[in-house]
Amino acid sequence: MAKTKRSENLVGLRCTVCKRRNYYVHKNKKKVERKLEFKKHCPWCRKSVLHKEVKLSGK
Q1: Residue 58: its pLDDT value, please?
Q2: N or C: more exposed end of the chain, with fewer CB within 10 A?
Q3: Which CATH number among 3.30.540.10, 1.10.10.10, 3.30.530.20, 2.20.28.120 corresponds to the domain 8-54?
């Protein structure tokens, strides 16, 4: 059987300006203890802004 990526390692990245969740990334929780922060392009703001990690709902 083929291995699938675990959804428990999946986190969302939320724009700090418009508060929309634009990106989803996998996080190695054993190696990275802090919350992720990336400067990425927000299609709603139409510029590169800081995106911070948020939990995924639905669990």
Answers
A1: 65
A2: N
A3: 2.20.28.120
